[in-house]
Design goal:
binds S-adenosyl-L-homocysteine; 20% strand; alpha/beta; elongated; Rossmann fold; five-stranded parallel sheet; 460 residues; 17 helices; Cobalt-precorrin-4 Transmethylase, domain 1; 4 domains
Length: 460
């Protein structure tokens, strides 16, 4: 980004607008809303501007632009339909170091005006850096429909009570207090127009002075890596956490969405290298929550699928710490979807099993007979290092060596890599492709469907 988004206080500031048409009128109305002192230079004014001039809202200098008019102005806007005039305004203003905007001509601008969604005192500005005003306007339209019109009133309410809350609550308790107010019934009262009721309820809440809130743990599934696959609940909790404990599987893009000020603790477990042991993680969660913090335990995929989420909350339950579990899209469903491999299919897969292919002492302990069933898809987590053994054992237990199989690295992300083959040749193909974890293995007739259904990264 080459621009600094700032909100400028233009109260009583002299501003010059060159141009007298409807386009100029729109800029003038923004300046007037900001309480600027506006002078319009133009041979003639359109009806809107003429009316404002007659009412004394702006001064009109009839005639053409001349550089001396820039004298002591704080800001200039050129909105004529003559490109030479616009350029002259821009050059003169820049020479005098006066911020200047030329409508629809980013090249001549020293500042640009964003599209705004006005919920004063809440203002949302959208800018594309001049690249596409149309896109900015489309985004604005979406935001308009997303942000309730009453948001401004909610902000104004908070503003009126800020001092009272400051006087009553110590700093660590304030943010949670306001979060509760802004997301709870009081906000709903404002949104539904029950302003007086909202004020009364807020007064009572402040009176009760919420004690420093007791901590809790959010065990959240962060999905398979692509941040678009997070749930709303996950995102919401990610944005209100005080501290986050995450592991290797959580992608940087997902981690990026955690509240910026939250403390980050890496508790990743990688093969043969355990940064923190499971019991230590469990204990740390309890400790942090008991300090009153809102602790986000962020896991890849779904916390209850090969995620040891159950163990973590068992400790919490035993210690009486409040917790919430947010499911995530598990690797099997995310990866399968992005690889174009439906896990079940009426013609060839009536069941689907998820297993872990984790190697222990160079063997894999699985119920092979249970896996080798007709019309069953097998999804193997953590199977890369044991891929050889997995394929060999499945074949040894009766699975056809020609069964289609796929291995997908970093599925759902822009690094997704898919290798397909048969049970027999997949280990060789995977080795040639030099895959690295996380990878997911899918075995079964459904893998064949990828030929027709691959939609994401077809090159795979
Ligand atoms: N709780 C997680 C699984 C944790 S086990 C879930 O529900 O998805 C870690 C294994 O998940 C990895 O070894 C890999 O097999 C699989 N995995 C997770 N994300 C993946 C991804 N984006 N692509 C491929 N495999 C993935």
């Amino acid at each position: 980004m080459e621009y600094l988004p700032i909100f400028l206080d233009l109260r009583d500031a002299p501003c010059l607008v060159v141009g007298g048409g409807e386009v100029a009128a729109r800029k003038v109305s923004l300046l007037l809303e900001a309480k600027a002192r506006v002078t319009v230079v133009a041979p003639e004014l359109c009806p809107t501007l003429a009316e404002q001039a007659a009412a004394g809202a702006l001064s009109h200098r009839a005639g053409r632009f001349s550089p001396d008019q820039l004298g002591d102005v704080s800001l200039a806007i050129a909105a004529t339909d003559d490109r030479d005039v616009n350029r002259q305004v821009s050059e003169e203003a820049r020479r005098l170091r006066i911020p200047v905007n030329v409508v629809d001509d980013p090249e001549f601008c020293s500042f640009i005006m964003p599209a705004i969604v006005d919920r004063s005192p809440v203002v949302i500005a959208v800018s594309t850096g001049g690249a596409s005003p149309v896109l900015a306007r489309l985004m604005r339209a979406r935001l308009e429909s997303l942000v309730p019109a009453t948001y401004g009133r909610l902000a104004a309410l908070v503003d009126r009570f800020r001092d009272a809350v400051k006087a009553k609550l110590p700093p660590p308790a304030r943010r949670p207090f306001w979060e509760k107010v802004l997301q709870g019934p009081i906000a709903d009262m404002v949104f539904s127009g029950r302003q007086a009721e909202a004020e009364q309820a807020l007064r009572e809440e402040i009176e009760q002075g919420q004690p420093a809130q007791t901590g809790e743990v959010y065990l959240v599934g962060g999905g398979p890596g692509n941040p678009d696959l997070l749930t709303f609940r996950a995102l919401k909790l990610m944005q209100q956490a005080d501290v986050v404990l995450h592991d290797a599987l959580v992608s940087p893009e997902v981690l990026n969405l955690v509240r910026r000020d939250a403390e980050r603790v890496y508790v990743g477990k990688q093969r043969d290298f355990h940064t923190l042991r499971q019991q230590e993680i469990n204990d740390l969660l309890v400790k942090l929550a008991k300090e009153g913090k809102r602790v986000l335990r962020l896991k890849g995929g779904d916390p209850f699928i090969f995620g040891r989420g159950g163990e973590e909350i068992e400790t919490l339950a035993a210690q009486g710490v409040r917790f919430e579990v947010v499911p995530g899209i598990t690797a099997a469903s995310g990866v399968a979807a992005y690889a174009g491999i439906p896990l079940t299919h009426r013609d060839c897969a009536q069941s689907c099993v998820f297993v872990t292919g984790h190697l222990r002492d160079n063997t894999i302990n699985l119920d092979w007979e249970g896996l080798v069933r007709p019309d069953q898809t097998i999804v193997i987590y953590m199977g890369l290092h044991g891929l050889d053994i997995l394929c060999r054992e499945l074949i040894a237990h009766g699975q056809s060596r020609l069964t289609p199989a796929a291995i997908v690295q970093q599925g759902t992300t822009s690094n997704q890599k898919v290798v397909t083959g048969t049970l027999e040749d997949l280990p060789r193909l995977a080795a040639e492709a030099r895959l690295h974890p996380p990878t997911l293995i899918i075995v079964g007739e459904v893998v064949r469907l990828r030929e027709k259904l691959a939609w994401f990264d077809k090159a795979g």
